[in-house]
Predict the 3D structure of the following.
Amino acid sequence: MRKQLVLIFLCISFFGFSQSINTDLVYKVNQPLKKTDKATPLLIMLHGYGSDEEDLFDIAKALDERFMVISLRGPIALKDGGFCFYNLEFLPEQKFKYDYAQAKESRIKILAFISNACKTYKLDSNNVFVMGFSQGAIMGYDLALAAPKKIKGVLALSGRMMNESKNLKTDWNTAVKTKYFIAHGNSDNVIKIAEADSAVKFFKLKKVSDVTFNNYEMPHSINGKELNDIKRWLKKSIDPPEKVVAIPTSTAAPTKTSEQKKK
């Protein structure tokens, strides 16, 4: 009997949680710990230049337990180790030379991955969020502006926005509804905090209604306070706003007091 139970458990684990997504991207999956009667929202994690899918993955444990979290590895392997979503060259004064054609190819692969992941795991395709750090944040902006119908929200951590992303033929009737959580370190020595300010101004100019910008006392990194803010923001983004119950005002004629009756 015990062997049968073990076999059943293994079958459930294999067939229930080991689905394979149709993709050539390498990824890691963190299943939601809290099940609800609603379809499961999806959070895609995109690492920074020279890192991999392991980099942000542990953060999943500190976020909203209703999300399925999938961390992707950049498709381009670097000579010195690590991976990226597009090649770049670091220039003086925190400037970069980059290959946008590669960024576009990665974007196409990521968008296809999102569609396939939602089908494979029966996820809520209307509740897809992208959280990226550094180059991953840059890709997050590009994804949302290229396909706003697919991305409900972007968490852009210590990133910037490429001019090519700003100049995409974006459907702004839809794109204004995308939610943004933009975070940056005051002492970032890789990407200037001014880049975050620039992104916020861009979205305000485009009348994007939901943009949160937080800055933290940190370099090019992620800290605990930022993680707490991320968790609160994600919860707020998938929970419907609380309905305010209006207290009806009386329309009946006021009754006279005993003093008024005497007069």
